[in-house]
Sequence to fold (260 residues):
Amino acid sequence: MWQLANKEITSRLFIGTALYPSPDIMEQSIKASGADVVTVSLRRQNPASKDGQDFWGMIQSMNLNILPNTAGCHSVKEAITTAQMARELFDTRWVKLEVIGDEYNLQPDPFGLLEATKELISQGFEVFPYCTDDLVLCEKLVEAGCQILMPWGAPIGTGKGLMNPYALKTLRERLKDITLVVDAGIGAPSHAVEAMQLGYNAILLNTAIAQASDPVKMAKAFKYAVESGRLAYEAGIMPERDLAQPSTPTLGTPFWHQNN
Fold:
């Protein structure tokens, strides 16, 4: 168990609910992943409308922690309004805050994100901002009151993994007391292992599982990858060396002398 905001969480894998071939495959994949936090887009699913009832009932039946997001919002006003609606509909003050600044790579707008974050925190939200790996921006978000940050590994849906491991490592070293979740760009279980070995608290992904040939198997693969990466981080990974070093020391090594 570990602490995420005001809740005790079991899994360090968060999973999205979009793009699956069917609702049944989505349900199986979420269960296989072991995730107990799922993201839901208010724009895609609305539990107050009839067409969203089946989806909402399925999510409720799994007893999951809902993390609504403001996906698709391109302005501060739009993001704040969407967050307010999500709080009302999903009965949670959690929100994954997205304010998109560029349509090509869906990069967050750092200025709009910071402005919206300040306003939502003043309204009592627990903001999980989706941001880039920019240290200065992340420090400003923390100053605004964020205890959780969600920097990208790469642009949404690209599957490129960690484009800038140095920047992500720097965030982990500089923001020691902040919960950090790599969000976006994770395409393979090995990417998740790499992020977790840096000391990140969790991984959030969707496309890599939902659009796999077998989403259920891929969900299991990511479950074990996240667990493996976290265990490796906690165990302490050996430092890299420039020179080879024998695993068996020469001191005390037996030797034989043959008399002629």
Observations:
- The chain has a mean pLDDT of 91.
- The chain has nine helices and ten strands.
